[in-house]
UniProtKB/TrEMBL annotation:
Reactions the enzyme catalyzes: uridine(34) in tRNA + AH2 + O2 = 5-hydroxyuridine(34) in tRNA + A + H2O
Protein's UniProt name: tRNA uridine(34) hydroxylase
Name of encoding gene: trhO
Keyword Transferase: yes
SMART domains in the cross-refs: RHOD
Family: Belongs to the TrhO family.
Organism: Erythrobacter aureus
GO terms of molecular function: oxidoreductase activity, acting on paired donors, with incorporation or reduction of molecular oxygen; transferase activity
InterPro entries from the UniProt entry: Rhodanese-like_dom, Rhodanese-like_dom_sf, TrhO, TRHO_N
PROSITE patterns named among the record's database cross-references: RHODANESE_3 (PS50206)
Pfam families: Rhodanese, UPF0176_N
Keyword Hydrolase: no
Keywords: Oxidoreductase, Transferase, tRNA processing
Amino acid sequence: MRRAQGGARGRRVTDDKTNLPIRIAALYQFARFDDPAAIKPDLLGAMEKAGVRGTLLLAREGINGTMAGSDEGIEAVLDHVRTLPGCAEIEVKESRAAAMPFHRTKVRLKKEIVTMGQPDLDPLAGVGTYVAPDDWNTLISNPETILIDTRNDYEVQIGTFKGAIDPETKSFREFPEWFRAKRAEIEAQGGAPKIAMFCTGGIRCEKSTAFARAEGVKEVYHLKGGILNYLEHVPEDESLWHGECFVFDERVSVGHGLRLGDHTLCRACRRPLSAEDMGHEHYEEGISCHRCWDERTDEQRARYAERQRQEMLAEARGLEHVGRREEADTDG
């Protein structure tokens, strides 16, 4: 049974950059934190005091996350983040929204700020060569360059660069095994590979290129600032990007100029859905889509249905449903 998309769609942010009250800041920094747990209380306190929502991840390798709030609130938290070891020059990707895209304020302790299953890998010791968006087209148009999309399969499905290899991974944790198998295949054909990698905001690229270098690959490049930086700075008529880019917040997807995309989110599996996907017989708002139908039990779908009912009741009353599923960890 298919149910029309309603309330969830109405909660999406807009791409109008003018006079929007909510400032969204996506950030990450590989740094060396000897005791992440000691950093957590003050960071969480700074977010709560500033009225900022979102999730920030802390690990011994650094910080990663996305948060949203007023201009003053975001600036206050960023001031605090810049006092952390190695974070004085942290780069922040910003956008604006008409409504708050997050529902909680969290600081989580992790083994890795982006999970690759390689906790001993040190990105600070040897990442690949950064390539600015303006120079990216030249690099990936070179027939000797092997271009790899390091994102998950559901992200690649809605957009990628022309000629990119899709590892078809369901999580970034699968990337090392895929890379080792693919590298052997490439080298069996002869020649040393020149590899270029990209991801949403740059963090997975830094780790994947560091991994490739640790595996002995010498020529490794990655897109500085990720796809979002490219879409923001490269004109659409010069772009080699096709489709939209999935983002880990209520915008769901963006296109050239970081304009709001046409995808929405399945609240059961958190994969992006096109208008065509929402016309599938297994799509039911808040409960299922054709991609997760076989992955969930009837019992799970019943729980999702009750959650959706409570959300719609809360929305009708102008309230925030506290039981709504948490947003996914930032994975840029």
